[in-house]
Amino acid sequence: MNSYVSSVMNDLKTRYPWEKEFLQAAEEVLDSLTPIIDREPKYKANKILERIVEPERVLMFRVPWVDDKGEFQVNRGFRVQYNSAIGPYKGGIRFHPNVTLSTLKFLGFEQIFKNSLTGLPMGGGKGGADFNPNGKSANEVMRFCQSFMTELFRHIGPDTDVPAGDIGVGGREVAYMFGQYKRLANEFTGVLTGKGLNFGGSLIRPEATGFGVVYFAEEMLKTRGESLKGKKVAVSGFGNVAWGAASKANDLGAKVVAISGPDGSVYDKDGVSGEKIDFMLEMRASGRDKVQDYADKFKGVEFHAGKRPWIFPVDVALPCAIQNELNLEDAQTLLNNGCQCVVEGANMPSTLDAVKLFVEKKTLYAPGKASNAGGVATSGLEMSQNSMRLGWSREEVDTRLHQIMVNIHSSCVKAAKEYGHEGNYVLGANIAGFKKVADAMIDQGLV
Ligand code: 2IT
Questions:
Q1: Do 318 and 250 form a contact (C-beta atoms < 8 A)?
Q2: Which of 379, 385, 386 to mutate to test the pocket of ligand 1 (most atoms within 8 A of CB)?
Q3: Which of 22, 206, 343, 372 could bridge to 105 as Cys pair (CB 3.0-4.6 Å)?
Q4: What residue ranges define each of the domains in the chain, with the CATH number in brackets?
């Protein structure tokens, strides 16, 4: 880090000492911006780093709702409108009991650079609540979503801020929030993405993040004259991202040998394919949240209670669960077992020391803000379709998604090379994502 970068980082540490996840995300980005800050004095002269680390606006609000027993409940709701230099705020909503402002600041900050990398006009934002949807009835979830939107609706809009899903928020929750927005605003607009196909949703959106991760992995392997064909893959996570990634990895000829859930991991030497992929969704929909169900159902499958899937020998690892699910020890184990490619489907799943090791060992390592951008990119495509009041075919959306992932990959490779760190996707992604936003901020004056 040069002195400008480290002084901004130190200020953040002093100002927000309790925001661990946000500081982690900020450190990764700021550290890798050093080469561009060194080369281009305009960023320091315009105090771009001091400005970009502070959200344009943070909304915090009470979310009161009534449970099925008739008891009053209260949760905390948030929306971090981080940066609108290149488009309306855009980013998902997370419902998870551990959500704090720090979580949403880290996610919103990542989203600025991710959205910039997609090449689409979207600013960065993120929202959520410390609500645990597990074990709640559909009616409880609906009442919660309606209450959440009753406050949020006045702050968002198709040209202001366009939320979507994230962990704990899928098609059902987006639909409930959309219904409530429409009622309050008296407007049918593309204010949310990830909508149902009957009311403005886009084909491919549920699987887009996972598809994009695999398209990105294929591009990375190509740089070493390889491909996914015949590669053994481990995927973590129990949601849409893991499911989409497992499905596309199969399409491209890879063998998914390990998947995980909240209770542990399974190793399936025959590969997770065909009906087993559909079963990934069923395990989720059952609400039991146990990957052990997979080992109980299919023959020859080992279940490893409480273990992450990084203990198995694989060629490619796709962490698609949650932040900090892959630590230094996991990284070491993966590398010792011959893993050569780690492509993130979740946001910040690798700890800072794990990332450092991957970069040091010249592993093909992609940070989530590049490799999981296919989800928000397809949200951007949903916004376009909504504006035109048209719907594209599956093929049309998939072709655009694929091209966007290819473009993000080449932007990362190009920026890394230009700034003297060839093959470093962390640096490439951060610099390429930053440059567009920072230049737009300078052009627009002190705002
Ligand atoms: O982390 C992410 O990029 C998302 N949750 C998707 C956001 C979006 O607006 O589709």
A1: no
A2: 379
A3: 22
A4: 55-188 (3.40.50.10860), 206-371 (3.40.50.720)
Cα 48 from Cα 223, distance rounded (Å): 33
> How far, in Å, is the centroid of ligand 1 from the Cα of 309?
24
Task: Give the nearest ligand 1 atom to 90 CA.
Answer: 9
Query: Which tokens hold the place of 437?
Result: 């936003």
Query: Cα(347) to centroid of ligand 1, in Å?
Result: 10
Q: Which of 114, 126, 195, 255 is catalytic?
A: 126
Give the Cα separation of 199 and 386 in Å (integer): 10
For the Cβ of 166 lying below 6 angstroms from any atom of ligand 1, the answer is yes
CA max distance for the chain: 63
Based on the residue annotation, tell me whether 126 is a catalytic residue of this protein: yes
Whether the Cβ atoms of residue 317 and residue 341 lie closer than 8 Å to each other: yes
pLDDT (tens place) for every residue of the chain, 447 residues total: 899 999 999 999 999 999 999 999 999 999 999 999 999 999 999 999 999 999 999 999 999 999 999 999 999 999 999 999 999 999 999 999 999 999 999 999 999 999 999 999 999 999 999 999 999 999 999 999 999 999 999 999 999 999 999 999 999 999 999 999 999 999 999 999 999 999 999 999 999 999 999 999 999 999 999 999 999 999 999 999 999 999 999 999 999 999 999 999 999 999 999 999 999 999 988 888 899 999 999 999 999 999 999 999 999 999 999 999 999 999 999 999 999 999 999 999 999 999 999 999 999 999 999 999 999 999 999 999 999 999 999 999 999 999 999 999 999 999 999 999 999 999 999 999 999 999 999 999 999
Q: Cβ(122) to ligand 1 under 6 A?
A: no
Which atom of ligand 1 is the closest one to the Cα of 107?
Answer: 1
Burial class (CB in 10 A: 0-12, 13-18, 19+), 352: middle
Q: 397 in the Ramachandran plot: left (φ > 0), alpha (ψ -120 to 50) or beta?
A: alpha
For residue 149, give the nearest of 63, 251, 36 by alpha carbon. 63
Q: How far is CA 12 from each of CA 37, 54, 118, 350, 433, rounded to the nearest angstrom?
A: 18, 9, 27, 21, 21
Q: pTM for this one?
A: 0.98
Write out the two tokens for 203.
Answer: 């084909």
Nearest CA to ligand 1 atom 3: 376
Q: Hey, whose CA ends up nearest to atom 4 of ligand 1?
A: 92
User: Ligand 1: does its nearest atom lie under 6 Å from the Cβ of 90?
Assistant: yes
